[in-house]
Amino acid sequence: KRTSFRKVNTFVAHSRISERDAKRIKRNFLRKGVLPKKEVKYKENQLVLVYRHRGSKVIANKEVLKTLVRLGLPVQRSATLHRLTHELIAQLKVVEPFVIWGYPNITIVQALLYKYVRLRCLQTGVETKHPVPLTSNKQVEDLFGSLGMLCVEDLLHEIMKVGPHFDAIREKLRTFLLKDPVGGWKDSTKGKLRSIGGEAGFRGEEINILFQRIV
Question: Mind telling me which Gene3D superfamilies this protein's record contains (predicted)?
């Protein structure tokens, strides 16, 4: 009986969370569009870094879960690089309480490449389970030589300027598996938006301050 009671409780809790998320998504799109109350001028086609800092347990809302997977963030503490578009902004609004995003500088991107890359095997196309540091020009030439990139500096330049080969690079670099920042989080603010004193949502260039504690 006790086990059945817990299962019912869990089901009810998940239903309430799912309903709450659905209402939040509806408010974002039907009332406020995809922009926050204080209008932010986003830099289209700019490089952005998206980091999933919440959601280690089951996410009840299927739309939120699907969007996280679509963004390349299937698990907590994963991160991806993206080209900023209207479509991406809309997706980020769906998963807003679960992610932190902003404009990374070259130092942070370089650290991600050097420490947290999981490359795909050239022979099988299968993604490696553990980070494979991308530190040698030979690695870059083997992976991206066909795109005209022969050294780490070429790769960094193409990523930072979000060049014509950016999407091809993302396909091979895949998702970065990271850790929590040094010092951790304040649990009471993890799901609140940055604009109201929380951790989640858009940070602009301030994301680099956070990532200095992560990478």
Answer: Ribosomal protein L30, ferredoxin-like fold domain
